[in-house]
Amino acid sequence: MMRRLAAAFLAMSMFATAAGAAPIATHDRPAPPDMKMLAPLPAPSRALVIKALAARRAKNLAAFRAYRKAGVYPHNFVRSGPLNVWRDEEGHLCAAATMLHADGQDAIVEQVATSNNNLRLLDVTSGPAMDWLLTSGFTLEEIDRIQMPGWRPSMREQEPAGWRIAEDKRLRRGYIATEAWLAKHRTAGLAMAADRLLENRGLARALVDQYLTAS
C-alpha cells in the first residue's frame, strides 16, 4: 500500500513540475513572422524625396504654365478688392485648382469649391488638400504665390467697362513673374519641401515608392 501511495505521489509531482515549467518555455519561442511586418518602414533618404518632389514640381509647373498661356482665369464677382476665387460663377478655376485638376484631384477641387470657394491654400493644415500640397513639389509659400487673389474694382454704381480684360492682363503679368521666381528658387524650394514632407514619414515613403516604381 505504501509503495502505491509513493508511486502516485511521485507521478503527481512530476506532472505538476512539467505543467509549471510550460509557461517559462513559451518565452523562448520566436515571435510569429507576421508580427515583424508591423514594424514601420524606414523613412526614405532626403535625396530620394527631393528626386520625387522634383518630378512632381515639373508636372505641376507644366500645368501652371499651360494655364497661364491659355489666359482663362476666374474673376472676383463677389466683392470689391482682392479675394481668392477657387472657381468663379462661370466655372473658371484658379491656378492652384487647375494644377489639382490636371493632377487628377477633382474630388479635392470640388470639395473646396462647394465648401469654401474663397479658400487660401496657405491656411490649410490637414486633410487630402494638405497631403497634396506637401507632395506637390512646391512649398506652401510657393503655392500661395501661384494662387493669386482676384481683384474687383469698386461697384458702387455699375460694372466698370472692360474690368475683366484688365484683370486678366494683371493676372497674366503676375503669373509670368511667379513662374520666373519659381525657376530662380527651384533648388531652395525643393529642399524646403523635402524637409517638410519628411516630417510625415508615411507620406514621404508613399511618394518615393510611387515614383521609383514608375521609373
Task: Explain what the structure shows.
The chain starts with a helix and ends with a helix. α3 (46-70) crosses α4, α3 crosses α9 and α3 (46-70) packs across α10. It has helices spanning 2-26, 33-36, 46-70, 95-102, 106-115, 128-134, 140-146, 163-184, 186-197, 201-214; strands at residues 81-83, 150-152. It has one domain. It has a two-stranded antiparallel ribbon. The chain is an all-alpha fold and 215 residues long. The longest helix is centred in the N-terminal third of the chain and has 25 residues, at 2-26. The model is unreliable at 1-33 (pLDDT under 50). The relative contact order is 0.15. The chain is elongated and about 60 Å long. Helices cover 62% and strands 3% of the residues.
Q: Element order, helices and strands?
A: HHHEHHHHEHHH
| Overall body shape | elongated
Radius of gyration: 31 Å
Number of domains: 1
Strand line-up of the largest beta sheet: 1-2
* Ends distance: 84 Å
Largest sheet descriptor: 2 strands, antiparallel
SSE topology:
Layout: H1 2-26, H2 33-36, H3 46-70, E1 81-83, H4 95-102, H5 106-115, H6 128-134, H7 140-146, E2 150-152, H8 163-184, H9 186-197, H10 201-214
Antiparallel strand pairs: 1-2
Helix pairs in contact: 3-4, 3-8, 3-9, 3-10
How would you describe this structure in keywords?
215 residues, mainly alpha, 62% helix, elongated, disordered N terminus
Quick rundown:
By secondary structure, this protein is mainly alpha-helical.
